[in-house]
Specification:
Number of helices: 3
Oligomer: single chain
Number of domains: 4
CATH architecture of the largest domain: Sandwich
Strand content: 25-35%
Number of strands: 34
Shape: elongated
Structural class: mainly beta
Strand order of the largest sheet: 24-23-20-21-22-19-18-25
CATH superfamily of the largest domain: Immunoglobulins
CATH topology of the largest domain: Immunoglobulin-like
Radius of gyration: 32 Å
């Protein structure tokens, strides 16, 4: 049995390994004997220079770095303030003994039974300074005394903003306040402007469920927008001030009953869900979308919130959903020409950068560096073939991209290099970046490999043939040894078949009983550097 080690990204050499009893590309060399007569022994001929590259076959370390992959520089955030969170909690009877704060997600985890006691008290109530595990994200929390939980036992959450975060909560009150509600006037708000982001677009397949008694001012809902009609969600485009910001985001207004006229009006609730037959899909949310007026920044009776597909959080400012990495492989090749990138919208320009020595770096809002070149991708607006869609149905929603026909001939060679998929803004600055998983592309590009049934070592017609499927390798060689512990004696390069992705070489003779090892040079994804595995020698039977 022969096993291969397949890589992508960063230039490296990888030794191919198998079990100790397997045949692995070997050759035994017979020792040369000589004799001669005469009274004077002739001077020995100088030893021939070893073949170039033979030293690789004698590597004993697990890895040898050939070309280091540079780390991408960290994004610069000059003057960024440390993020903190302070939670104020008021109990109407002043009974704080035993009441603790349990928190998780972006907050440092705390054990349920240990709990977190108040750090202080003030005229409002208990004060908790929450230790954070991250500077961004959502903090989950709830107030409890043993197994007795406030707010009906429902998990609470707060989305962190940069700098100081301070919120006020009241026993039994589901609203979250960003100022002390005991000393603050009721919010003066009549409109909530909703920004809604869907990574895959398709806004026509989704709509709003609106109803009376939810904080909605039904008298100001536009004509034609149905109220309380679950089977027929309201199209976003029917709402006041609707606009399509880009292919992945829309904005619209929801009229609300002003809390200034009635202090019991503390929030707005609504639902985003699919149209038939997907009407019971609430965009990944289990509960209604709740917008607390006391947590909003209100200007001229209007406040804005941001919603993200599949994310239950209500953001009071635009969340940064971008992600930049050269190694995380969040995208997927669906076919030789199609790529799906989950959780990335269709805005901006998309490029596929390449480097034969894995020198690409990328930083958010900066420029790509270290690439040998790039190709620009098109947004795919057609229908993904059904068999492909079924195979990759696990991939989350996101933009689908297509390689231009004019660039298709480069793809096989590009897959032997480090590839980085990048979304750029109009100025060419990186917005999102990732590598991509390749099975869909390789299966398509090298479909003829399905008919290859003689991979490994084959002895026939006076020859020993070695075959290896490694379509992303840049080079494959085979070393031969006198024994399993001696040094490499010969090195032979394998030839690449562009139709199948198979590398092969034939050596004269029946090499049964000999020892070989075969490393391959490719692009290899390892953090910060790329290395070679030392060849593992296998003696054939």
């Amino acid at each position: 049995m022969i096993s291969t080690k397949k890589c992508s990204f960063a230039s490296c050499v990888v030794a191919l390994r198998s079990g100790a009893a397997s045949v692995f590309m070997a050759m035994a060399l017979a020792a040369c004997g000589g004799g001669g007569g005469g009274s004077t022994a002739p001077a020995p001929d100088p030893a021939p220079a070893p073949p170039a590259g033979l030293d690789v076959g004698n590597e004993t370390g697990f890895q040898k770095i050939l070309s280091a992959q540079p780390a991408s520089p960290a994004a610069s955030t000059p003057g960024a303030a440390t993020t903190t969170l302070t939670v104020h909690y008021r109990r109407t009877a002043g009974d704080y003994t035993g009441w603790q704060l349990h928190h998780w997600n972006a907050a440092a985890a705390v054990e349920w039974n240990a709990g977190r006691n108040a750090d202080a008290t003030d005229s409002f109530g208990a004060v908790y300074n929450v230790p954070l595990a991250a500077q961004t994200g959502s903090v989950g929390y709830l107030f409890h005394k043993g197994d007795d939980k406030d707010h009906g036992g429902a998990d609470q959450s707060w989305v962190l903003k940069p700098g100081a975060n301070e919120i006020w909560r009241v026993q039994g009150d589901s609203a979250t306040y960003t100022a002390n509600p005991l000393s603050s006037a009721a919010p003066d708000i009549t409109t909530v402007r909703v920004h809604y982001k869907r990574f895959g677009g398709n806004f026509s397949g989704w709509g709003l469920h609106l109803w009376g008694g939810s904080g909605l001012d039904t008298a100001r809902v536009p004509a034609g927008a149905s109220i309380g009609d679950w089977p027929n969600p309201v199209a976003f485009s029917k709402m006041t001030n609707y606009a399509a910001v880009n292919a992945g985001e829309v904005v619209f207004d929801l009229p609300v009953l002003n809390p200034k006229d009635d202090a019991s009006r503390k929030s707005l609730e609504f639902i985003i869900h699919g149209v038939s037959p997907n009407q019971d899909n609430k965009d990944g949310r289990s509960d209604n979308i709740r917008v607390d007026f006391g947590a909003l920044a209100i200007k001229s009776q209007l406040a804005e919130v941001w919603l993200v597909q599949g994310d239950a959080s209500v953001y009071p400012s635009a969340p940064d959903t971008r992600s930049v990495s050269t190694t995380d492989a969040k995208a997927y090749w669906l076919t030789s020409k199609l790529i799906q990138w989950p959780q990335v919208d269709a805005g901006g320009t998309f490029k596929l950068y390449h480097s034969a020595t894995a020198q690409i770096t990328a930083v958010k809002d900066g420029k790509v560096a270290g690439a040998d070149g790039s190709i620009t991708l098109d947004r795919f607006t057609g229908t993904v073939p059904s068999a492909v869609a079924t195979r990759f149905k696990f991939i989350g929603s996101g933009v689908v991209l297509a390689v231009k026909d004019a660039d298709a001939t480069q793809l096989a060679e590009l897959h032997k290099k480090q590839l980085l998929l990048v979304q750029e803004d109009a100025s060419g600055n990186v917005q999102n970046a990732t590598s991509a998983q390749t099975p869909g592309a390789l299966d398509d590009l090298y479909a003829a490999a399905a008919n290859v049934n003689d991979l490994g070592v084959k002895i026939a017609s006076g020859q020993t043939t070695f075959k290896l499927w490694a379509p992303t390798a840049q080079k494959v060689t085979v070393f031969t040894y006198d024994s399993g512990t001696g040094e490499a004696k010969t090195i032979d390069a394998l030839a690449f078949d562009a139709a199948t992705g198979v590398w092969s070489v034939s050596k004269a003779g029946d090499l049964s009983g000999s020892t070989t090892a075969s490393p391959s040079r490719c692009s290899c994804a390892v953090p910060a550097s790329c290395a070679t595995s030392s060849p593992t020698r296998i003696r054939s039977a």
